[in-house]
């Protein structure tokens, strides 16, 4: 024990020490087993400590050698930190010194963190300790009350012996006792009961009139004991008997309805009254209906005695009740599907005997419905009399004619084979009539060695039978003496040696071996370029089919042969016919004759030319040679770029490119919500109002807030906005944004409202017979705008933890590759671009320079190396220098190019460089921007970024001093013009500034003159030769584009899981399509694409500054638009026929678009196959999102903005509310009128009522300001 080690011969190795023998070892020591080892245990298991509290941890020691074990130390490992405390031994107890337990990360993600606990003992004078055994795996559980529970009920339901938490009414939060100054309670403080219960959901929504329906209610603050809820649940003024063993504290009640006292068939609310007080009463938003199911029709009316027939029952209210059963007479029918209008059940086997007719009986929660007019007849089972020519091939798929009786009773018939104890099923049989069906054989799986034993002379003999709706016929080879199934080797198709020539409508002959041994013409399918080729003849070694007359011309088409389930690609076919050899001679003769004739004519013309013409010819020849040389040079450069390694961009990324400057959630959502005013929108600032009006405005806005959280009112309000044909589209978008800002504090409620609005939008679209695929394509309704923002809110974690990295890498790579070549700083046309419209269609001589940037204004030390081009304008150079020098800082923290000057340092000489100064060159009144070449800046020159001597608003500490800011303003017409002060940098002592007002300027591309001609006197070439640069750019960026598309359309991301919001909303769209009978999969595919990729991802690709703290990507917007267009094409379900006249943005990725489309289809398919997200789990996720971002925007300001639209449409809203039955029951017109009057009532007559905005202090939100909106 003292040596603290495990040895083989302890008596010899550890002489004189206390020994503990192994359990089964024979030795002198009487101590055996781990129970005798030095260890410690706790009296009551794990130790629970609230975060931020001090605690002395004490445990009980066992088998301690007090004379030898001199002192002890306790170690607590919290996250990655180890805390060590001295411990003392008192008797058999070890007590650790007082320690403060707390954690700051996510912990276990459930409001707790685990501190691993260990105790080390030391011998006197030794520094190396030994661990005591922690046999009970004792831990310290650190918890935070506010994270353990989000509401009062869950808080008080916590085990108080472990968690010393209670609910603080003042803070509306689960907290510790001493953290709450007023209104703290827990389960030990008398009869604690949480106010404001809420019914989140209940099911089912219907039940039979006689009661007995088991209703499951979920919600918040639903009591803290069975006694609280025993008599508290009412449905239609009748008590609902609560089940004690199924009750879950505060969150779930299960009860059984009684027969209602009032009328039936009308929707009623579920009411939970914990006390005779409105604050302890919950009324469901949804309604429950007492109604019996009814049947209108069903099919089929007959089925085999063995069962397995799927009966479809059509009626009304078939979803009434929680327990639903169907019987055919006394025989159960298993329910497979159940909706409001349809039930599908599968019959069980009836007693053997003759056919009999039985009634269909429905049972809902004990209430039986027997429809005398609805009967089902059990018929004798189908029988098989013979199988014509039972043959197959190893790959299966051969059609067999099965003759018998009763086949028209079957729904699911399969041919089944038995081979080597393997039961193999073929495809579903096709029932032709009562006595005939066609079944296809299954494939036979065998090892290659066994497969080689099968030949034409020795086929494999296999037993077979049939599966008739789940009932097996047995082995017909043995029971009925049928001939066994003969399985032959797969036929062989010989490949074409070369491309075959054929014309549309002609016969195509294919050769092979053993083609018709088992197969017939109906088993063979030939396609040429995906177009069927009609099989006309099938022999042992040849197969003939007739080509379609519509076969495409001048194309090489792939020929695929499918025999059974064996597919073979045999080669290519084309209708191109080679030229006859005799034609070559004729063409050669014609060319020779024409050449001789032209030579004679040229000679005659040449002789007649005078001297002036000769000079003109020489001049034109020189011009042509010059153009040809330039074209050749450009083509050579393009070829070199295309052959260069396209991954060279990875090596050219500057150091620090891995830094990703994500915007905060608030800044990100502000840009999404209000893209044109995200920096100064009213919802980002506190609402200001005149002091005399503050009380009225606050009370009115609180009433408005409560109305918006009434489902009936908000739906009526949105319907009014959408139905107002005079309401502008931009105003609908704005209203949708404001609603999502207000509802953000209750994302679960926002989701419920959004789903209802989308249901109405889909129904309205289908009722009006609009094209369903246009839904969600544009934000033409409030619901579509809310859907877009809903995704944006919930996708933020996915962006910051996963896909944001690929999006930033694409932006960074595009920016870097664009800057590798010349770019016009005015038109933004560049040498390297994905956009044809933004391609620089001229050739410019340029050199790449490496310059060094001084570390600060007055330093001679250069700490940054920057690659620039000698054709860059001075502003472009400044931007590149700032990017390199401040590469690890977000854009908002950097100095801007307009705030600094660029200084060239040569020895002790310093010169400020500017885009325009008194040295700028001008031609015909147009000035050219200065470049590095203009200033003759050499390679490895030294530059410095110095402050400007004018007003500046950014943190100039980055430049070591505060300076002023100046900027140029540009006016772009046909000729770019510059409106500014005189030449040079304002306040620069290095430039003489001639006076000028409005100047026409250009950088690389000269502007077009008024008479339409270009100022450039150089020769112009055909601009299409520059299109190869698009391929260079594509090759460089393709990996980044595909990385982004792959992470967008993948459900198995390595970093983060698929966002729950995508699965939840896609399942909702699938349900809506099914509910409305939309069977076209392209429609749902388009809905999903319009809702997420085209509305969310395309927006971020075009505007990466919405998620990253970067400069607005004006320089590369053309390339980003092409990437966005590629994503849109990948989501499209249409096959676009591309030609040479198609836009280059579609042609550029034409070869890859089919691959991208397959990614999208796989993505949607994988999401659909994932298990659905339970409503309770999704609501918990949404509530957590709301809690995490509940203080991002000013709710009063948002209500104030939204009130303007309410006031403008108040008459229409009144009319909508007065026509709504539920609105009238809840007195919503009166409440709406009261709110409008409150906004105008003088403050002396106003009484403020508490509402759901109690956490907003009116003093801090409504400040005195005479320039108020409410005046």
TrEMBL record:
**What are the UniProt keywords, alphabetically?**
Cell membrane, Disulfide bond, Glycoprotein, Membrane, Receptor, Repeat, Signal, Transmembrane, Transmembrane helix
Instruction: Show the Pfam families listed in the entry.
Output: Plexin_cytopl (PF08337), Plexin_RBD (PF20170), TIG (PF01833), TIG_2 (PF18020)
Q: Which GO terms describe its molecular function?
A: semaphorin receptor activity
Give the organism the record lists. Answer: Acrobeloides nanus
The protein here is known as IPT/TIG domain-containing protein
Q: Which domain of life is it from?
A: Eukaryota
**GO annotation terms (biological process):** regulation of cell migration
Q: Where is the IPT/TIG domain?
A: 196-291, 292-379, 381-471, 490-573
| Record field: transmembrane | 584-606, 782-799
